[in-house]
Amino acid sequence: xxxxxxxxxxxxxHGGFIRQHHSMLVAMHQLTDVLxxxxxxxxxxxxxxxxxxxxxxxxxxxxxxxxxxxxxxxxLYLSWRGQSxxxxxRTVFTTWLIVVGALLTVVFLFDLNTSYGGGVMVAWAIAVPxxxxxxxxxxxxxxxxxxxxxxNTRKIAIVGAKEPxxxxxxxxxxxxxxxxxIAGFYDNRVTIGDRPLQGINKxxxxxxxxxxxxxxxxxxxxxxxxxxxxxxxxxxxxxxxSLVEELANSSCCVHIVPDIFTFKMLNARSREIGGLPVxxxxxxxxxxxxxxAKRAEDVILSSIILCIVAIPMLCIAAAVKLxxxxxxxxxxxxxxxxxxxxxxxxxxxxxxxxxxxxxxQATKNDKRVTKVGAFLRKTSLDxxxxxxxxxxxxxxxxxxxxxxxxxxxxxxxxISGYMQRHLxxxxxTGLAQVxxxxxxxxxxxxxxxxxxxxxxxxxDWSVLLDIKIIFLTFLKGFVNSSAY
Length: 484
Known about the structure:
484 residues; 5-stranded parallel sheet; two-stranded antiparallel sheet; 47% helix
């Protein structure tokens, strides 16, 4: 997650608020991205001897606008000092891939494919992210060299020699282009002279606790520092409040690093509600555009898959019906998104249809499993009817596997964060399944590992991750030795 440092400012007459801090470099990035998007397409059109007509102008306009919107959404224009170079370049390519997808959708919907030269558009699609990334890399290199020469560097002090102060220091030390020189730590809780970051590198070894908060106040009044970062735990509220009031009499820029690292955060993000900054500790990654992309992915892929497997599903249904008594399809109560109950469809693989308050998981050599059912469960073919659940909007192709309601009630009090799995729609396959955590969970540790991968999926979700999981499912996710 990209982080921004909010600058404390004097309260306005109508009430205080926190404003997003924009740097000149960020504004330059925004302008350059628009100019690159337009300029490259115009150059390719000119070199190809084509006319710069309304079709190309519309493509350039939509491309630049979409890139600007999606770049904001993906955090590309957040504080550049807080992002790694790899993360920035990856975000550029991911954002542009979404833009190209959106433009292709418009072209096909309105049948505009004859309005463009194919070679020109392909070259444009490749050149834009490469050029923007090259520009951003170059900007960082130039800024780093300037700062090595002592230009635009800032001397900072960190109040707090424990987490999150140490995390902040490690981030700054690992990002020399930030132009921040750490003088040291100030903390009433740690012995003066301690070196809390020993063992990382030579620069980190030299950082030590220079004094307590009272010494910091004195040095701040003397103008020793350009910036002061207060990174104290929430329980030090009175100390933080007193320190902020005292530092108002200095010329330092003062920043507060919220102690949100004490929480096990899931898809944490910052937002504003009525001008007030809010940090989401637990949140779903699927809102607005992301939700639309996820739903489009589910509808398109599940429709294609159902067309492909329609005949095999009829054969499976016949085999289930002819080899054992009972219904062909088994509906089991599961928790869906937001913990709402849904009925998940499966081919019946047992002689029983447990769906009450107590559901016994299938075990090795379970006598309840039919001969056909054993094959279906081993190959995951019993899950095929769940593509109907996907079309209904109750499930996704990729997501945390839905557990029986009885199992949810059992584990929700035993595993921390267990119910956070239900911030997204359950899936037919998931990150846990392709990493081997499928089948019987006869120990608490196995369920904990499954939940760990489910929460990692929610934190790291992207369309590319979904595609990767689907691909891995075809390679190794269908047949599993622990699926009974």
